## 1
Amino acid sequence: MHSIKIRKIGNSLGATLPREVLAQLNVGEGDILHLVPTENGIQLTPYDPEFEQTMAAFEDTYKDYCNAFRELAK
């Protein structure tokens, strides 16, 4: 388990993640992490849950209108 300390960075507060944690999350400088509330606290993840919901809705729509999407892509 890793622990991180909250530090003052300019007028804000921030935390530095250890390299091992960055490697596990497969993220680097400039990437965005999302804080997702769970029943056990907060989950830190590089995956945007709203994007996943949007893609699931698109997949349902795509099945019905795949020919129209192909024509639009030309």
Note: The radius of gyration is 19 Å.
## 2
Amino acid sequence: MSYRILFSGILITGLLALTSCQNTIAGLQSKPTALGKTSELVVVCDQPMWDGAVGDSLIFYYESPYPIMPQPEPMFDVRHFTTDDLNADALRKELRTYLVIGNLSDEDSPTTNMIREDLGPEKMRRAAEDPAYFTSVGQDKWARGQLIMYLFGKSDDDIIDKLIRSFPTIAQRINQHDKVQVNAATYLDGENVPMSTRVREKFGVELKIPGDFKLAVDRENFLWVRKDTRELTSSIAIRAFDYTDKNQLELDGLINMRDRLGILVQGSSVGSFMRTNAEDLPVYTYQKELGGRYVVESRGIWELTEDFLGGPFLNYAIIDGNRILMIDCFVFAPGTTKRKYVQQLEHVVSSLKFAG
């Protein structure tokens, strides 16, 4: 083989590789980054479906009240588009989270045709044969950072049944998808390392305190950090209690411990302190695991005695050996929605780790 032929082969191979690389880069650059806020859901379905029982059922579940707020706020902010709406405005294809719903028995449905095209014949064959297969998930269809979920059935009644059964899983997937955005908003100013260190020294736990939270109170067996802006005060208070009785983890016991913690959260008026308002709205409790420990989470409304101030709280009573570590998160944000601030506090507590 001559050197000229060898050089030509190398040159052609290099050009092909370069062209392939450029095509790949161009493909990546052609997709914009998805836009939108957390807890936002775009529902894509035909207009008659949206106007009927399927749309009503979806709104009932996905816009159910977020637990628990002084004024009602929905779990998700739902928007509806038809496929024509999507094609009419390119920006409508650049949002973050979509739920595409179609009736596979309707051959003339534009949304069903979209589902068939996106999922392909193999998945459509499975949908026809397997009653347990009625959802699918895709990513980055029109923009980077997109989550697109598909839900399909053979009639409106079938879709409603599957919509109800799949709600917990889909809601969890949306919240998981939002975590990157929630984390960015929560730690916009990084971490307050001295405060995180103080929490570890005082209570023996790792908790990543956001950089814009400052020390409010530090006394024996109690620590309170808070973020103050013109529109809100967002707080995390920690106190340890002796674990003596399982009744401490019942609702009355949790409220009692929280109110003992709240005495140390004092308002501006003389004798004013934080208490749990269990009269006007309920306190909800949930059992879960956090940092490898058993936890009872409670949500409700707090208020200040002697002051007309209050807001939502999120409380964690964590069993750790012979103590109950209580982490209480509460928000004061008059005149504005509070869901995103509660979500950010929840995200902070999710970073909790116990030493060893």
Note: The CA atoms of residues 5 and 213 lie 68 Å apart.
## 3
Amino acid sequence: MELCNLDGELEILINYADEPTIALRGEVDFRNMDRVRQAIVSLVERDKSLINIDLRGLIFMDSTGVSALIDAANSLVPKGCNLRLIAAGGQLSKVLSRCGMSGLFQYEQVSALQPSISSPSRPEIRDVVEFEVPSQPQMLSYIRARAGDFACSMPFGDEDIEDIKLAIGEAATNAIRHGTCRDCHKVRIRFERGKDEMRVFVIDRGRGFDPDSVCPTPFGDMCEGGRGIMFMRALMDDVTFSSENPGTCVEMTKKFQPS
């Protein structure tokens, strides 16, 4: 067993057996997705016909992490090797299905009961939460956690809350990577509670961009540059982009059933 401590709150454990297993523990996003891909490639070079990816310790995976798995699975096909996902969560399965990539993988469900986790108490109900964070990758976990806390005060199911966290993570990632200018190194986040919806705003002060010019992502394709936008639109009920002159505002809406 080999343990790799990686960037971005992620551990990778590699078990070099007849059917080698890579266990991911923590968060996978653009900070460390290349290391995940490299770990898989290192096992392919050992002429293995099947590689297991154990996801039981996975806390979060964004579009770049999913793309790392897809890229690796695609590269294995000519080598006669398969990638098997162990304990793939519902959200990951849904995303792979919606982008036409589920057929690239084998799947193994874990039947053993997992330790129960008591649900946290619902936070105080607020109509608006707004804050600014430094435009730094290490703030992504904090932004996702704040989004989850706000969503927990509304009648959302667990799956919807995870969708919201993933979507805002994609928008915040784009803002941090591409929305920083010389005079502004902050990203503004705003959550609003509507009558039957949660609205999320991610605002940067970068050069801005035309979302319609981003490479389209047809079914069965994961084109570089369009993955995050595709995920946002797949997981939220409405996604709009507007110019802030300078900068970009991403507004996303998720509907809920009023209690």
Note: Helices lie at 33-44, 63-76, 90-98, 140-152, 158-178, 227-235.
## 4
Amino acid sequence: MSVSDVVAQKIVIDVLALDTYLIEGEDGLMAVDVGSHGCAMDIANYLTTALNRPISDIRYITATHFHIDHIGGIGHLLDMCPSSTRVVFYSAVDDYISGRRKIPLIKNWFVGFPSATLVSTRYLRKTSHLCIGTLAGIPLPGLRNITRLPFEKNRIDYFGHKSGSKTCCLNNFGFGEWEVIKTPGHTEDSICFFNDSTGELLTGDLIVNTSSDGRGDLNRFCWDRNRIRESYEYLCKRINPVLMYPGHGEMITGGADTLLKVRVF
């Protein structure tokens, strides 16, 4: 089974139209953005029925950023996996968990949140998609101090970036065809996953695709509007994806100009 065979199939549409993906490495799978208990159960069901693979094939569970709708089901999925399965975050998340840094507040709530809520009503199918295992990752005053996760810290690894580097390869994790690209803006710790050989980009919440024309939009619902534009411009200069998988909404296709067609505010 090729990497594209796995990634190109959306695993589950979660609350707020969150999309969860599986990517394949040398020795197993990595689950990206597990937002709820229902999401975790759907991943397990997809593995055993559609892919005819055991849950033990999941080696890592990760998130494109530390928001509750992207990490709320990690603990539940981890409970179903063997003890060797690891959670892996971008290195900046360690500062949140340790209390050295607070989760950045999201601005422009009135621009981004209502549209996301309206879209979510089309996708919510099971009450389990509303069930979460943690209150960590809420970007609101007071609540952003909650960073406790429903699993031990010794289950967590981190994607490392050298000082000033925006990218790191996942060779050490057994996913050598993939690289992690630092794309702050929606949050301070936001990352994307890119496979140059297949042209696939997992955008997280940098880009969303909830409009009817399918072009995708740079996310107005963000921590820093200037930083998110800079991250988008960096991607446009550096990579040329042909398929993009957003954190919310449908897959974005458009050939060589896929990224350039995204609407920017």
Note: The first helix runs from residue 3 to 7.
